[in-house]
Design goal:
about 220 residues, alpha/beta, six-stranded mixed sheet, Rossmann fold, single chain
């Protein structure tokens, strides 16, 4: 489902900084893989490249058989809207929309605003334990609840791939454990392929497989799960 081959990325400047160097790995359909590494090692950049939000200096990324680099801006946008869901550390919930309206955004971008879409929003909110919070405003929710909203929004349009960037980074340990367990449960239920970037080994243990990102690329970490 995801294939990364010899990926490199350097940010320009007075002192150019290479954040990814010859990164290669594959993620199978339905697999849940965690990428671990220290802060600043390039985990977020890697997810951005896989999601088509940034472009690599060299190497290739394919998602569901589609070469991201071969797409123009519009093509990458369409791929993200139809095939990919994102979960971010800082939630990225729009404060002026209700919980249900935030979750419905991916469907609205696909021009799906009918009764079936409304039913899907209710279904996915129930699956993350927020059925009674659909009309609430984000300011009325806790951090753990906001991340549940983010998970629901990432999955509402039934993406083939879900990319989660430090989804427990702003949560206390108890909420972090609950959210990562819920994330795995929802990903499995929806049949999605998931890639989780995290510095938390506790979060990484929820994955089927763990890869460690370093300045030299990636390597498998058996025994972590």
């Amino acid at each position: 489902m995801i294939s990364v081959a010899h990926l490199t990325k350097t940010y320009p400047g007075a002192q150019p900084r290479r954040v990814l160097n010859d990164v290669s790995f594959d993620v199978g359909a339905g697999e849940f893989v965690a990428i671990v590494g220290e802060s600043g090692i390039g985990k977020s950049t890697l997810l951005n490249l896989i999601g088509g939000l940034e472009t690599p200096d060299s190497g290739t990324v394919t998602v569901d058989g589609v070469d991201i680099a071969a797409l123009d801006d519009d093509g990458r946008t369409i791929l993200r809207r139809t095939h990919i869901g994102f979960v971010f550390q800082s939630f990225h919930i729009l404060p002026y929309l209700t919980v249900a309206q935030n979750v419905a955004l991916p469907l609205a971008l696909l021009d799906r605003g009918d009764d079936a879409a409304d039913a899907r929003v209710r279904e996915i909110l129930a699956s993350v334990g927020l059925a009674d919070r659909a009309a609430s405003m984000p300011r009325e929710l806790s951090g753990g609840e906001l991340q549940r909203v983010a998970i629901a929004r990432a999955l509402v349009h039934a993406p083939r791939v879900v990319l989660a960037d430090e989804p427990t980074g702003n949560l206390d340990p108890q909420n972090a454990a609950e959210v990562i367990a819920l994330f795995r449960q929802c990903v499995v239920r929806n049949g999605a392929t998931a890639l989780l970037a995290t510095h938390s080994r506790a979060a990484a243990r929820a994955a089927d497989r763990v890869l460690a990102l370093s300045p030299d690329g990636v390597q498998s970490m058996p025994g972590m799960t």
